[in-house]
Amino acid sequence: MRLVQTGDQQAYTRLLDRHLDRVHGYIFRMTNNRADAEDIAQETFLRVWHRARTFKPGRVRFTTWLHRIAHNLCVDAFRKRRDTVETEIDAMADGAPAADELSAAEERRRAVHAGIASLPERQRSALVLCQLQGRSNREAAEIIGVSVHALESLIARARRTLKTRLQSHMNLEGV
Amino acid sequence: MTNEEFAERLDRYGANPGDWPREDRAAGLAFAKTDPGRRQLEAACAFDALLTETLVVPEPIGLKQRILANAHSRKDPMDLVSWLVGPLWRPIALAAAPLAVGFTLGFTYPETDSLEEAVAVIAFSEIEEVNGAASEEDL
Lengths: 175, 139
Description:
- Chain A is mainly alpha-helical.
- Chain A contains eight helices and no strands.
- Chain A starts with a helix and ends in a 9-residue tail after the last helix.
- Chain B is mostly helical.
- Chain B folds into two domains: about 50 residues, no CATH class; about 60 residues, no CATH class.
- Chain B is about 70% helix and about 0% strand.
- Chains A and B meet through helix 2, helix 3, helix 5, helix 6 and helix 8 of A and helix 1, helix 3, helix 4 and helix 5 of B.
């Protein structure tokens, strides 16, 4: 990152090789939309390049800083598109094929995506960062900007909500 | 450990004991060996696996090349911020600039006896010049 801060383009390419997939994965799981995920991932890494000098190595880990940029851009996108997203979800529900036309796996995939998409953004972010991206609770808390205890509560609420919503779609007895 | 406490643990930290808090991990593992604990743990494992296996991320084809192309061609609108957080002389220079302009104006304009007169000199001097020029043209 120090080389990127000096404008080293090769170092920036290496940084992309190392972090792009993971950050794109986080954004895709947050947005559940391929085009949005690519746009936000692109904006995230352009900000890293243009604002590399604002990164203070001793103060925060690079991956935390990077994910915080991505997280903030996701939140901005959600706020801008809140009405649109609700409309899209309604439209998807109206135009979706009947359940018996879908394979069980596809039906389950859709149910999980819809369940995650319906979570409040901080719960979704906490769940995705810790459960799916493998971030530690402490790092995820720094990214979202909450205490570790608050983050754990967000995860617990997200899991409970999802389990309730997915109960009818799959066999999770006793969960 | 009770059923509820174990369920809360699984909701907070997931099914992997390695992610549970160290201080009472042993108590959690002991409860997981009981029948209700085992059932809860198995269900939590199934839930974790469901999330991990279902939420597959598509490969972002060509994204890296697009980012590199844009990074080298696009100017950042917030570049001023990056400029400002560089060496210390930059924010100082930016803060000093209005002061310098103020001093220059203060020393350039003629001295006046009262504040009102000074304000009038600064505020209307150009208009008077313009009016004067217009009047001459009218004549």
